[in-house]
Amino acid sequence: MGRARAIVAICLGLAACTGGVSERRAPAPQPPNRLTIDAPQTRVCLANLGQLARFEPLPDRDYGEGCYTFASVRLTGTGIPVSNLGPMTCPLAATFAGWIRNAVIPAARLYLGADLARVDTFGSYSCRNINGRQSGNRSEHATANAVDISGFVLADGRRITIKQDWDSPDPAVKSFLAAIHTSACRRFKTVLSPDYNALHADHFHLDMGRGPFCR
After folding, report:
1. Which runs of consecutive H residues, i.e. helices, occur in 21-148?
2. What is the CA radius of gyration of the chain?
3. pLDDT tens by residue, 8-24
């Protein structure tokens, strides 16, 4: 009996020294697909983005209710001014910058015979549901993983907009928009155009969410 009590006492003493198994707590897991700005995968993305554009890394922020900007940046230079841009996830920013540099700029020269002067957008991050509904799933905009493109300004002063020119009678304009839409579908996970529904009549929605989906 004395020996048994001694063994129990030793076991209890060891548990006290280690804090006891029952008191150990694992770190709280991050939600799925939420990379941090310091994650190794994000660092690789930032290095690649640096070859395409200038940018400012942003601190990770959780705004609650499914809205956050993690592993995100603010683009400060893509070679072409871009209006209304807010936070963008690094993968979105890199894909977007590559699309402008390697698809939109060359297409403007090829089909429209002019240099691109500006890309106009309706923004990137926005804490809202899909299609702005009161209920339902959060949009990719709510995690800074989407950007809406509204139009393009050329160096000669012409302005091409999705709303006015998607069905343009000008074959050059129509070819330009068709070419960059096709290129976007090869790069982004989801691309929505006026052909998708009336809610996208005035912009291209580009995101790096689930996909692939192109319309």
Report:
1. 40-49, 90-99, 105-107
2. 25
3. 333 333 333 223 322 23
